Amino acid sequence: MGLPVEHPQLSSLVLKSPLGLNPAFQVNLNAAGQGSSPLLSPVLSDAGGARMEEDDEMKRKRYPTDKAYFIAKEILATERTYLKDLEVITVWFRSAVIKENAMPEGLMTLLFSNIDPIYEFHRGFLKEIEQRLSLWEGKTNAHVKGDYQRIGDVMLRNMHTLKEFTSYLQKHDEVLTELEKATKRLKKLEAVYKEFELQKVCYLPLNTFLLKPIQRLMHYKLILGRLCKHYTAEHRDFADCRNALKEVTEMTSRLQHSLIRLENFQKLTELQHDLIGIDNLTAPGREFIREGCLYKLTKKGLQQRMFFLFSDMLLYTSKGVTGTNQFKIHGHLPLHGMLVEESENEWAVPHCFTIYSAQKTIVVAASTRLEMAKWMEDLNMAIEMAKKSTEKSDTLLENSVCNRSNRSSDEVSLEQESEDDIHSSRSSLDRQSHHRANTTMHVCWYRNTSVSMTDHSVAVENQLSGYLLRKFKNSNGWQKLWVVFTNFCLFFYKTHQDDYPLASLPLLGYAVSSPVEADGIQKDYVFKLQFKSHVYFFRAESKYTFERWMEVIKRATSSPARSSLLLPKDEKDSHTD
Could you tell me which residue ranges the DH domain spans (predicted)? Predict the structure, then answer.
């Protein structure tokens, strides 16, 4: 795979107006990688790994070992990723819409006037953090580094300034809504949007990048909380960290409701793009609850289906054979009057339950008892909520789902149509060439699992970036990579300056642990990722960093049902098989 394209010269980007591009500013989006896209399993060569390893050992001995330093380093690493995420919109997407003249001026102004100022602020903030870490490490002015072994003053000053940007953040709700409306209305914009999502630089669904600014505030809050917990009240950095935490908490409290609404809307629009057979998934009042894989009992036996649970209905789909990676809706069941009950004994199928609705009855099986418990719990909760809501949910359903017969004969013909998918489902995610297969919908399909809106919210809090050394199960050397963990997925880059990932690894279904003696790993701070026979080892630079990677991956990829306390331990573990 070739080297990443050079970043467009950011200094030549004039941000005075939403269209303010210097003529010298040109982005070759094709060079940014239209053809081949990031692989779904890391295949980077490990050549030169051993040399990097020695260099790293030398550096580690020179650098500070204080936990506060590594927390500050985490702020730096995640800020670098956050700035790159903003550039997906401020630099790359802007260039794509201007090139095709695809966006009305009013929408251009709304979008970029609310994100450019935030981007500019964070460029300055990142420089400050880099300078402070450089002083802390003693690379310059070593004789005065004592005054610089802290981060609270930098955080306090910038959190205070960031408060002035709250009005921009509050507009992101409107930005997301208007962008979605415009893509539905304007075919040219829709085409540019879809084409842009195929670029390697757009490594997540595009509108997720619009959520990043509010989510970043949540990260500052969590990381400042960690610093305050680490310091004693007498530490010279404590007061600044505590005041910075107070400032950011005021902002997150004000924006919390907005974020919940935004995350729901983003998820509905993402599903709208990937589901065939529904026109108005983003209908007001509809909330996303869970998506995942279940096996539906049909005349031909158990058939793999994707199920999507919302506050007013349950949809089930199969993977389309069109090559677009979209899922085709087979049925929709209103929650009003629905009943769910376990039926393992009746059908002699493990982890099986029956869904009775006014229109039809379906029998489904989950991959594990834990998965069944999650689905039944969420279905019952959603049914109860639907009872309390008004009758308008029925109208929503009629208006949004395309007219389709619910006769069983229709069901059978659809089942036949998707026979090929059942075989393709056995192939692994690794063979997917289209990088939008990183959406949780596709990962759930191939890993035979499910994800709830609660899991998505937990994943937002558990994002991390930094350099790690990676080793495959059967290789000798360690390769240094810049790694970003977000949206249940590890993304691999050569360096933090790269504009797009070279490879990625979706972690749903993976178990994270420390290596055992049989693994033959003689190094410190190593964690092991395993899914069936797929095994990877990663080495962190410090105890703190190692613990953080273990913590975020565990939290984001394992989501026990609230009722799982009632399950025997072996059942709790079985979902990672």
Answer: 67-258
Count, residues in the chain = 577
Classify strands 327-334 and 275-276 as parallel, antiparallel or unpaired. parallel
Residue with tokens 């982005």: 27
pLDDT digits (tens, 9 = 90+) for 245-284: 999 999 999 999 999 999 999 999 999 988 999 988 999 9
CA–CA gap between residue 79 and residue 133 (Å, rounded): 13
Alpha helix locations (H) across 389-439?
392-400, 408-417, 419-424
One-letter amino acid for residue 158 of the chain: N
Task: Using CB atoms within 10 Å of the CB of residue 198, give its burial: 0 to 12 exposed, 13 to 18 middle, 19+ buried.
Answer: middle
Nearest Cα neighbor of 207 from 270, 129, 277, 256 is: 270
Do residues 98 and 159 lie in contact, with contact meaning Cβ atoms separated by under 8 Å? Answer: no
Q: Find tokens 């279904």 and name the residue.
A: 509
Residues facing 468 on adjacent strands: 481
Of 32, 1, 27, 3, the C-alpha closest to 13 is 27
Q: Tokens 């420089």 map to which residue?
A: 127
**pLDDT tens per residue across span 346-360:** 888 899 999 999 889
- pLDDT value at 111 more than 50: yes
**CB-based contacts of 352, cutoff 8 Å, min separation 6:** 297, 342, 343, 344, 346, 363, 364, 365, 366, 372
**Cβ atoms 288, 453 nearer than 8 A:** yes
Q: What does the angle CA 468 – CA 470 – CA 474 come to, to the nearest 5 degrees?
A: 170
List Cβ neighbours of 251 (8 Å cut-off, separation of 6 or more): 159, 162, 163, 166, 169, 217
Which SS3 state, helix, strand or coil, does residue 531 take? strand
According to the 3-state scheme, what is the secondary structure of 511-571? EEECCCHHHCCCCCCEEEEEECCEEEEEECCCHHHHHHHHHHHHHHHCCCCHHHHHCCHHH
| DSSP tag of 8 | P
Could you give the angle at which helices 238-274 and 172-185 cross, rounded to 10 degrees?
A: 20
Contact 289, 247 (CB under 8 A): no
Inter-axis angle of helices 238-274 and 212-230, nearest 10: 150
pLDDT digits (tens, 9 = 90+) for 184-233: 999 999 999 999 999 999 999 999 999 999 999 999 999 999 999 999 99
Residue 301 in tokens = 């036996």
195, 232, 299, 323 from 434: Cα distances, Å: 12, 50, 33, 9
Q: Quick one: tokens of 547?
A: 């613990």
- Map tokens 């989510």 to a residue: 215
Three-state DSSP class for residue 139: coil
Q: For the range 231-235, what are the long-range contacts, defined as Cβ-Cβ under 8 Å and sequence gap of 24 or more?
A: 231/68
Q: What is the 3-state secondary structure (H, E, C) of 44-79?
A: CCCCCHHHHHHHHHHHHHHCCCCHHHHHHHHHHHHH
CA angle 480, 482, 486 (to 5 degrees): 140
Q: Kindly report the number of other CB atoms within 10 A of residue 224's CB atom.
A: 27
